[in-house]
Amino acid sequence: MQFLESSVIGLRAARHRLTSPDHAAEVTLFPMVHVGEPAFFQQVYAEAGAHDIVLLEGVTSKTASNLTRAYRWMRVGRLGLVVQPAFDTAETTAEVIRADLSAEEFDALWQAIPVLERRLLAGLAPIFGVLRGLILSRRSLARNMNQEDLTTRDDLLIWGTPFTGHRRVLLEARDARLCAWVESVLQRSAKRPLRVAIVYGAAHMPQVLHCLRQGWRYVVVDSDWMTVFSER
């Protein structure tokens, strides 16, 4: 199943709606990326905000902010793109849940990564952003962004390194937290026909889909594409 598709027309994200024969809640997956056209983020947030419950990603740690500087320093504005804006909770009546690690949890996991890996990643992130920004185009940004299964999701990380510590922090630990929140929300809404939106990084979608399928017998009943950005 596809979550992101990079092609000659640009980058698209697949929105999937799921239902279960055993559960009254309906779940919609909104795969996210760090950079896109303003209209993409506006559409996602408007549609997600129309649900009853929204599960959001987002770590408020200064360490996490430093690691994502690469996106902010790529100067994507000259391409008509923006770095993913914050979800405005004032614009929705939905219950919004930050289904991610706390700053303290993230920092504790980060400190457990080998020192050399931490220093290299923290130092390379902004440098990567500046250098990539010099030759950045919509086509190069979309390249290798296809997201279909667990074997390819590392392509969505900004570092092409052989290290594995950051994978545990940025992917696996956050996968586990998101799945725990999904289970919690579904348990308390087992008999209520609620609509749940999951607005989370595309790299995490394969695992949350697995959780929904295996633990709750959810199946995809409807899918459509949302344009992240065209290649123009």
Description of the structure:
The two termini are 26 Å apart. This protein has one domain. 40% of the residues lie in helices and 24% in strands. The strands form two sheets. Strands 1, 2, 3, 5, 7, 8 and 9 form a seven-stranded mixed beta sheet that branches. Strands 4-6 form a two-stranded antiparallel sheet. The chain has 232 residues and is of the alpha/beta class.
Main pleated sheet: 7 strands, mixed
Low-pLDDT runs: 150-162
How many domains make up the 3D coordinates?
1
First-to-last CA distance: 26 Å
Structural class: alpha/beta
Number of extended strands: 9
Count up the helices. Answer: 8
- Average residue-wise pLDDT: 86
Rg, Å, rounded: 17 Å
In terms of DSSP E residues, the strand content is 15-25%
Shape: globular
H/E element string?
EEEEHEHHEEHHHHEHE
Helix content, binned percent: 25-40%
Short description:
The protein contains eight helices and nine strands.
Features of the shown structure:
single chain; 232 residues; alpha/beta; 7-stranded mixed sheet; two-stranded antiparallel sheet; 9 strands; globular
Any chance you could write out the topology, listing elements then pairs?
Layout: E1 4-7, E2 10-20, E3 23-32, E4 35-36, H1 38-49, E5 53-56, H2 62-67, H3 69-72, E6 82-83, E7 95-98, H4 103-111, H5 115-134, H6 138-142, H7 165-188, E8 195-201, H8 205-216, E9 219-230
Parallel strand pairs: 3-8, 5-7, 5-8
Antiparallel strand pairs: 1-2, 2-3, 2-9, 4-6
Helix pairs in contact: 7-8
